[in-house]
């Protein structure tokens, strides 16, 4: 009866674990959920799931409740022993066992007493990771704990593989979009890196505006693809250095309409279905004189209004063959002057709230390694509004002078000539 | 004790169901696995999972063990009733219940006696589908069956949503690749539809050669992207109608190397990691005089050798502004003549085994609706080898004449002028 009761309780817990972990498809979160479940089911102090990276032959894990990833060669330590032999290790007294390495305890101040470690196998029987649990609350880990961990391990393996499959596909798609965007930008030397940068600016706007995760994703994909239509614009027109004729100008403006018609052929699902419209509407103006559709203010999707601001900002702050960057205070004045005709005030104002260190990071996206950390952190307290105020102060304070000078050092790219 | 035993057995079964269904991420297969599990756990004759399509407000399902999809308005029948009210329906005698529609039994010859139908809810509590089980083997469905079905339903809902998420992302990516390929082809009017067609030819080759599913997927993606590098080729050169200069010709040939270097930036995972190399090697020749790398025979990946054959076939059978298609027997002779210098004999021979109806389907990809079914099925018994033999026969048989004439009718696109 005791056995039957125990078995019953075990089944109930396992079913709960199965149901809980099946809800999570994001690998990071999934690992955390699994570790929490194991801790609670096995009544122990710590649980770590190590995932085997076959290519690099390493085990890695997110430290529970921490942000850092740990990684080590796949044969090291207790976990490495389990990954190599495929056998369960149940150690009642860690310090009496040769396989235990006390150095980590020394570093962390933790005191390991009992250890239960088990391999995680996929449906093909291949080892894909290792469970390691520490310090059973009450005594040491039992044979029953071994059985339970084995069952959770099997359930987890499938879910981890599903999550990896999903993430890999997402990563492939994302890197594809990025590569495509930069390829299209590269057709016109003046716009190299443009789509990448406006995607980054848009992400900063999303932070300031507290957009939802879904909106952020739509904004990100729309930003990457907003100039996709340029793929259909004739190169001779795209790269012409002389003044464009009226018909050439019209042809270039068509890129926005091309963006829409091409992206509409893509089988976007869920919230991403808005991407073609949002991406294509980045040249609409609130006064209705924009293109391709000549939409008026409230007809323009919010996310397109955001793209409109960052698109112009990037154009003004990019170097052209015939000039250096427009002075920064003029850029901000130009955006401000566009309020009510070109831009929605909300999004110009949001843009002006992005901190200067974040802006510099994107402006100097191609050589971030040249940014000094101390300079960046001194700019982290200021936004564009502060900058313009400092710039226009009739009697600037010492700190205002420093702000202007630090920012200008990078913005004018003087370090590139020094 | 009976209760405890029952509960115990139920937990054991549920855990098995959870583990079984968690292994399947392909929606079609998943639905079948779920239906089989329910039948076996509830000991009944049939189980159907209906999935709610919110956009079209329809319920759909694959008929168990059948290929056909059934679809109907989301308020119809027992399943519709459950989807609308969110309540479980347990009918001990179908023919005595008003909600039961006996017409389907009449059509199928099946005799429905007992029905248990339950909603399937996701973690947000939204109804995403309906379970319908028919004819409990022994008596009618019990309250315990209702509980069990409810638990399976909850487990299934998560897994179905995960599979949908995964499939949607895959669909978006695939349609993206197709759209991109056709956009690139469209830059050169001579090659419109080219990537799409060679992807289809490659799929036929895969069938003839019995490639594995993984190889097929790598071949498909490589075929779609083989000319991606053209995005970096200057348009003036790409579309030049006069004879190319040596340096222009070299620039065009660079598209293969561009394909490799651009695709290498993409975070392909698993087998797809071979895509950049395979896609870029479609102009390699077995005698080592190809490009970009001048690989020799066994250095050229098998899938690139397949692409080489279908790439040339498509070029020869495409209309050019200055000529119609090359006569079909000459196309086949040209491929054959390339064996040992340009092509690996295995893949020319495989190509020649593709049935003529399949070839016509792809050759006339843009107006398949003009192909007569009777003509196609009369061509389904012949391949290119048969065609050339018939064409060259000094005294062709009646059926050989018919074969040539039927194929030519479409190949020469005479119907477009008649």
Fraction of helical residues of chain A: 40-55%
Report the CATH topology name of the largest domain in chain A: Hypothetical protein af1432
Low-confidence stretches of chain A: none
Number of strands of chain A: 6
- SSE topology string of chain A: HHEEEHEHEEHHHHHHHHHHHHH
Name of the level-1 CATH class of the largest domain in chain A: Mainly Alpha
Q: Structural class from helices and strands of chain A?
A: alpha+beta
Q: Largest interface, per-chain counts?
A: A-B, 51 and 51 residues
Strand and helix map with partners:
Two copies of one chain form a homodimer.
Chain A: H1 2-21, H2 27-42, E1 44-53, E2 58-62, E3 69-73, H3 77-85, E4 89-91, H4 103-108, E5 115-121, E6 127-136, H5 143-187, H6 194-208, H7 213-225, H8 235-238, H9 246-263, H10 275-280, H11 302-317, H12 328-337, H13 345-352, H14 356-363, H15 373-379, H16 384-392, H17 398-411
Antiparallel strand pairs in A: 1-2, 1-6, 2-3, 4-5, 5-6
